[in-house]
Amino acid sequence: MTKFYQGVIDRDMAQVESFDRPEGRFGMAHNLSKKSLELCIVKYGRGDEISSITPTVWQWVKAQEIHARVMAAASPEHRKIKEMYEKVTLDTVYNALTMMAFAKALNFKPEELKRVIHAIGHAGEDALIDEAARALGEVGRPVAGACLYPKVYEPLLDVWRCDPPERPAKLLAFAKIWKKKIKPIYWSDSLNEAEDAYFGYWSFDVALAAIALDIPDQALRDTPYYPKDLVDAARAK
C-alpha cells in the first residue's frame, strides 16, 4: 500500500503546478495533501519506527505548501472552485491536529513547528486548530471563538479551555465516545470496508491534547484507537 501511495504522491507532485488544465490543479493539489497525510498514518499503523516517518511528515508539509501556491495562483474565473477547496472541513481540522501530534512526537524544533503550523493555515477560523497552534508556539495567532464542527469537537475544545485539573476526566470522556463523534468524517466507515483503501483509524486529535497539555494518559491507554506509541515518543524527548 505504501508503494501505491508514494507513487500517486510522486506523480502528482511532479505535475500539479504545471498541469495543462488550470481548473484541474485544485483537485490534484487537494489529493496530494490528502494522500500525503494518509501515508503518514499508514506508516504509523503498520508499526514503523516513529522517527522514520519524519520525511513523510515533511512531504505532507511540502504538499500543503504546493496546495497554497495553487490556490494563490487561481484566476477570478475559478473563484468558486478555489473557495470549495479552501473551505475548512471536518477532515481539515482532524488533519491539522494529527500533523501537529506527529510534529510533537518527532520533537520538531520551534522553527520546524512554525513551518508545520504555517502549512496548516486557517488562522482564526477554527478554535480547536487555533488553540493547538498556540500551544505549539504560535502565541500571536488569532483564536476563533468556537470550533466549526461543535457536534464533533465541542467536548475536545472544552478540554483545551477548561481548568487543568478537569482535563484528564474530560479527555477520557471524549476518548470513550470518539468513534461515534468522528463518524461524519469521510473515512469513518473504513472499518466496514466502505472506503477503497483502509489507511488507519486513530484518535490523533485526542493524543495531541494529551501531549500538548501534558495530560496524564494512563486511563486513555485502555481506549480503542488511542495512539499511545505516538504519545510515548513525544514524552520520551
Structure, explained:
With 237 residues, this protein is mostly helical. The protein has two domains: 1-87; 90-111 and 120-237, Orthogonal Bundle (PA2201 C-terminal domain-like), CATH 1.10.3920.10. 61% of the residues lie in helices and 0% in strands. The protein has twelve helices and no strands. The chain has helices at 2-15, 22-45, 54-72, 79-86, 90-105, 110-120, 127-135, 150-161, 167-176, 178-181, 204-212, 228-235. Helix 5 crosses helix 11 (204-212). The two termini are 30 Å apart. The relative contact order is 0.12. The model has no long low-confidence stretch (mean pLDDT 94). It holds the Pfam family PoNi_C. This is DUF1911 domain-containing protein. Residues 125-230 form the PoNi C-terminal domain.
